[in-house]
Amino acid sequence: MTDTATFPLTFTTTPSATARAAAEREEILADPGFGKYFTDHMATISWSIEEGWHDARVVPYGPLRLDPAAAVLHYAQEIFEGLKVYRHADGSIWAFRPEANARRMQRSAERLALPQLPESAFVEAVKRLVEADSEWVPSAPETSLYVRPFMIASEAFLGVRSAHGVDFHVIASPAGAYFPGGVRPVSIWLSQDYTRAGRGGMGAAKTGGNYAASLLPQAEAYEQGCQQVVFLDAEERRYVEELGGMNVFFVYADGRVVTPALSGTILEGITRESVIQLAKERGHAIEERRVSIDEWREGVSSGDITEVFACGTAAVITPIGLLKARDFQAGSLDAPAGALTMSLREELTGIQYGRREDHHDWMLRLA
Ligand code: PLP
Ligand code: COI
User: Fold this and answer.
1) How far is the CA of 4 from the centre of ligand 1 (A)?
2) Ligand nearest to the CA of 146
3) How many angstroms separate the CA atoms of 135 and 163, rounded?
4) pLDDT tens digits along 216-256
5) CA 244 to ligand 1 center in whole angstroms
């Protein structure tokens, strides 16, 4: 694709005339929940087949103007990212591994036939938005600003081909715990009727369609009293892939840490990669391989598997207490969260909140 854009892009900023009053903002930041409130601004970069990336801007947060024939509304040509921004004790503001999100978005773009946004432009858009809305980065324990970059096919054209007009946007939302109730073991529903992604499909891309596919099984999970759904591979319906919005890890009694291998059908989590790194540094043997549902079930029952946890940007590291399926259960919600689970969580959040040294250079200062 032609791209005549010159980088770095120059951003213009239009301050919001309807920004929330400080008192209202503070009230929201005291108990933000997850994904319910949005900051005063958004960042946008447009792309066209003629001009490439252009018109980088920070503008007041508000509804998009989208033609009803915009391709994204019909053919779901869309990708997104999720990353968190933290306020440290000295007031400074930092993002966790934003370049990794930028690179993953490039990989998603390739799969969805969308244009690739340069890593530097992605990071710059996040930085500009956070600068404009820096007062929205909360400071209470366990809170952060969840940043949601996304890219949509905005061209009005109903022929099925990759769009010639695309917009990249970044919005942000103050966030507390993803699972209400804080860090407590959660229960997971095993989807036996539905799968999330097949070989050659879009499972490794962060695209809306994968989440649309997860909503019905996720609703089933809620009906069963579970907080998340876990999917098996589409071919044999035997191997554990991932949850609706998180990766999964198993800790063995002998210290091994096991997680499903990246097979092209699961999302390559940035938290997953960070957890692998931290566990390796502690001397744990890491196994990225296939894990059958029977191994999970039997391992928990026999005591071979001592801890199971989920991880992702929104969920951080969350202990899994109970696996529930149509005809069996494994584990218990009464058991305390695993020691390694909680200690990895403490280490990771320690780095993110600036309480621990960032040996890996994972944090990028934004303000
Ligand atoms: N798997 C899925 C399906 C997800 O939606 C997410 C969340 O982004 C993850 C895994 C974890 O990825 P990350 O750690 O990069 O947030
Ligand atoms: C994230 O963790 O960033 C996600 O996109 C997952 C979703 C459950 C919010």
Assistant:
1) 33
2) 2
3) 36
4) 999 999 999 999 999 999 999 999 999 999 999 999 999 99
5) 9
Three-state DSSP at 119 gives: helix
For the chain, the average pLDDT equals 96
CB of 208 sitting under 6 A from ligand 2: no
- Identify the structural domains of the chain with CATH numbers, from first to last: 12-175 (3.30.470.10), 186-352 (3.20.10.10)
> Which ligand is nearest to the Cα of residue 317, counting in written order?
1
Contact call for residues 193 and 223 (beta carbons, < 8 A)? no
Q: How confident is the model at residue 151 (pLDDT cuts 50, 70, 90)?
A: very high
270 pocket-lining for ligand 1 (C-beta < 6 Å): yes
Shortest-distance Cα residue to atom 5 of ligand 2: 82
How high is the pLDDT of residue 158? 97
Following DSSP, what letter does each residue of 123-169 receive, concatenated? HHHHHHHHHHTGGGS--STT-EEEEEEEEEE--B--SSS--SEEEEE
Query: Which of the listed residues 247, 249, 265, 266 should we mutate to test ligand 1's pocket, taking the one with most ligand atoms within 8 A of CB?
Result: 247
Query: What pLDDT, on the 0 to 100 scale, is given for residue 5?
Result: 73
pTM, whole model, 2 decimals?
A: 0.97
Q: Report the pLDDT value the prediction gives residue 3, as an integer from 0 to 100.
A: 56
Quick check: 208 and 245 in contact, CB under 8 A?
Answer: no
Phi first, then psi, for residue 142 (nearest 5°) are 70, 10
High-pLDDT (> 70) share of the chain, %: 99
Centroid of ligand 2 to alpha carbon of 245 (angstroms): 5
Q: What are phi and psi of 9, to 5 degrees?
A: -75, 150
- Give me ligand 1 centre to Cα 97, in Å: 14
Ligand 2 pocket test: pick from 101, 105, 178, 318 the residue with the most ligand atoms within 8 Å of its Cβ.
178
Looking at all shown ligands, the one closest to residue 196's CA atom is: 1
Please give the structure tokens belonging to residue 100: 């990794």
Residues forming a β-bridge with 60? 41
Distance CA(202)–CA(340), nearest Å, equals 32
